[in-house]
Specification:
globular; mainly alpha
Length: 140
């Protein structure tokens, strides 16, 4: 394996984790606004703490490489569900740029979920807590 291939997995995990960590942190700082937006979209605002925990906890676990297959699978589902609820809005009769922007956001969520499913299939890669345990056990 080349050095580039070895670094690709942790860099990819970092890039995927970053969106979840930043989104969770932004929801904390804009708690009331996010809760109101969720209510407006028909999602109970009372679920916001769970959303924040999912984004921050999942993002940090992914970044560190802890239980990545499980975390990536859950984040893929979360991402698809949130994309459907908040961005796939053909029933609202949006047109033009607004509809295009929402569809791009939806497809971004689909793409992130695809990246998560690659992690489910391939694991955490190098420089991860999950791989560290495996390496330590095989050294014994």
């Amino acid at each position: 394996m080349t050095q580039f291939q070895t670094l690709a997995a942790p860099i990819g995990r970092f890039m995927l984790a970053l969106i979840f960590i930043m989104a969770g942190a932004q929801k904390i700082t804009g708690y009331a606004g996010t809760q109101a937006y969720m209510d407006m979209m028909g999602v109970p605002g009372a679920l916001l703490p769970l959303v924040i925990l999912t984004e921050l906890g999942g993002g940090i676990a992914l970044l560190l490489g802890w239980q990545v297959r499980i975390v990536a699978f859950l984040l893929a589902g979360f991402t698809l569900l949130s994309g459907l609820v908040f961005h796939f809005l053909p029933s609202l009769g949006m047109e033009g740029m607004e509809a295009q922007t929402q569809m791009i956001s939806f497809m971004k969520n689909v793409s992130i979920a695809g990246g998560m499913m690659m992690i489910v299939a391939l694991g955490s890669g190098a420089y991860s807590i999950g791989n560290r345990r495996t390496s330590l056990q095989s050294a014994e």
